[in-house]
Design brief:
This protein is mainly alpha-helical. 92% of the residues lie in helices and 0% in strands. The chain has three helices and no strands. The chain has helices at residues 3-51, 58-109, 114-165. The chain is elongated. The N and C termini lie far apart (58 Å).
Length: 167
Amino acid sequence: MTMLDKTIRDGRRAAGNARSAGDNAVHGGEMLRAASDVIAARLTIMAEGLANPMKADMAEMSLMSSEKVEAMTASAGAFAGNMGDLAARVSKSAMDEVAHAQRAASQIAGAASPQAAATAHYTYAVAWWGRAAGQMLTLNTELLKAQADALRPIHSAAVANAKRLKR
């Protein structure tokens, strides 16, 4: 793959990340609006229930906790799974980089001349920079995915509740 091909690929990934970040922000805003609507509707339901306990909407009141627990459990599960995958990938990248550094150190130490040693060092440094940039782009992509996956169940519950409670 040429440098131009890598630049185009990385540009596409960066643009995709920007779209993902924008989508996450929109979904976060939708969730906040829906949560506000749900809180307002449920406060009214609770106030009506306190004013007349015989007519309290017990079904809705019972959902107030169980839905939160369900959404938060799904969110935490998604986040934990993504973070586990991310930790494994970062650990593998670190071990791969140790191997690159060992090869570079051997090439530098075994160089026939100071110029050859400098060339080996430069080659390693430039390659490292490229790997580091790619790894950071991948990390950013994976963190955006983790954010979206963690937000999804909470967003879905809040938006569904807001629609259901609009009477």
